[in-house]
Amino acid sequence: MAELVQRYLDEILAEHADVADGMLADYIPELTRVDTAKCGLALELTDGYVYESGDAATEFTIQSISKPFTYALALDGIGRDAVDTKIGVEPSGEPFNEISVDDQTKTPKNPMINAGAIAAVSLIPASSPQDRFAQILDFYSACAGRRLEVDEGVYASEKASNSRNRAIAYMLQSFGVLDDDPDEVLDVYVRQCAIRVTSADLAGMASTLARGGVNPTSGRRAISPAAVQRTLSVMMTCGMYDSTGDWVTSVGMPAKSGVGGGILAVLPGQLGIGVYSPLLDANGNSVRGVRVCRSLSAELGLHFLSVTRESRSTIRATRDVAPRIRVYELHGDLLFAGAEQALRTVENDSAAVDVAILEVSRVDDINDIARGMLAGMRQSLNESGKEGFLVDPDRRVMPTGSRSAGAVVYATVEEAIEAARAYRDVQTGSANWVG
Ligand code: GLU
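A: This is the predicted complex of the input protein with glutamic acid.
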């Protein structure tokens, strides 16, 4: 059944396969030595299940996507109030590398621009720059679910062409924002930007934020829920450079992009997304990455303002009504992540179940993607010699029409069970088998 979602992701990537607009970030020379055709997409559910499409295993440098994570580490390190005295939370309306601070407070406007990100590095309590970087690398690795490494080539390349960030660091020192040596702080910042990740790593990091700070694969807490909430809030308002407003309206997820071509997006409580495609628009966002995210959001119904009523547990109960026939009662609002979870449960049960009956009469609301997934369940089960029926008494949830095409819908559970018995008996060749 996972192939249903896989197919959606592959199709979305294929839809944008020809996008070749944009430019590489050439102010860091090493970033121009990448294959511009590469495009990867990964999605990690908050239970740790991962979907990958295209070049999801291709490595690139994290760049600005590091910023929210270092900010989160600073929040947990010294507390929100102390961080707030040094870094604001307001959108800046300026390019990410602007040499500026807030007129009134003389502190960086937010942690997603370079000034705020450099300040955030300096706020991580540490005994030395090496110790500070080690904490950062450990933390990113815990969020990604694997040991990450620095791209020494990109690090050296940015270090050698770093006057603008040096200007920012010294300006911060002059305003009393940086207490430590500006060059040492900057070195850690440049190193953190050069950490190599894949789209799958970004999806894991995003999913850790989506789960309130617990990495879904290791089950370990990497960061506090309070730091996650604050970080996601700032990502929502400042994460996509100067096109954050457009992003929030068209995609609708807290996100961060980087000039390495990556985008990380979070749907709290549900999933994390990582996308990679290196050609950037004038704001510094991956052109193809943004388009893929727009399609994902529209086609899978992921805009965060449309999912606020998603119930945490979609399957209310399961009942074995006869040998190898199981009824699944779904309830609440059924959107992408809920439907994905339900279908994956059916798939996981398939060794013990020949006919799955999904009773959807208690589903309050359903969107098109979830409807299409429920309808697609049957074909998927048929391919492995199994059967799947739906029970929807007045066809409120699965109305007759194209999105429900392919589904077999019964008015009552009893009718569905009868049909399931008939199917099972034909399959086993034992029409008289008492079940
Ligand atoms: N290392 C880059 C810089 O500081 C990161 C910029 C970005 O990804 O926006 O310029």
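The first strand starts at residue 40 and ends at 45. The two ends are 26 Å apart (CA to CA).
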